[in-house]
Amino acid sequence: IVQARIADGLKACKFGQVVALKALAGEAVSGEEATSFQSLASESVARAIMGKNMFGVADAIRHYKVNPTKKELVKLEEIPFGEATLRACANTHVLVADFGLSVMDVWEQYTQLFYNKSDPVYSEKDQAKWARKRVKAQWRLLRKEAVPNSFSKDFRGQEGLLGKGEEIPEAREMVYMVIGHYLTSGEKLLPVYYARTKSLSGA
What we know:
Elements: E1 4-5, H1 31-35, H2 41-50, E2 54-55, H3 57-64, H4 70-75, H5 83-89, E3 93-98, H6 103-109, E4 138-143, H7 155-159, E5 166-167, H8 171-185
């Protein structure tokens, strides 16, 4: 299985304020306005801790062509993980500004990076709703490799390996992170094995 950290909750760390919002007034962000978010204090402090293991707001705008709204940017202003959590996970996880794209959204943009480059079985809406699922923007902290010692176990046994504040992510989250991380760092994750998520093939 793969693994995701749950937000620290009450001890959320707010690294800084979003810049250049006064002219947005709830409208979609233009390309020029979007580039200003590369200098967000939250982005720079978190990146100083995470290094290459971060896929930030500007990365999503550049590689996934997202067009964030003011509401989404305000929500991503606050990174819900304390500095201690980020430092503990700096080498094992990727901090991700997840704009909620579906598996098929990513596949349609970067088909050449998927194993199945034409008509994947999950492309049919009736066969796999999970592949079309979109969610609201939020920060995620996703493990780069499978949970240690999680192979050759059933799902219940794998769940027992998770610690406090950890959960099994959905396939959508992992696809978004793995492709995004490759585009920014050139590092290929999960290259030689399949890892289970909590998404069901028939859901």
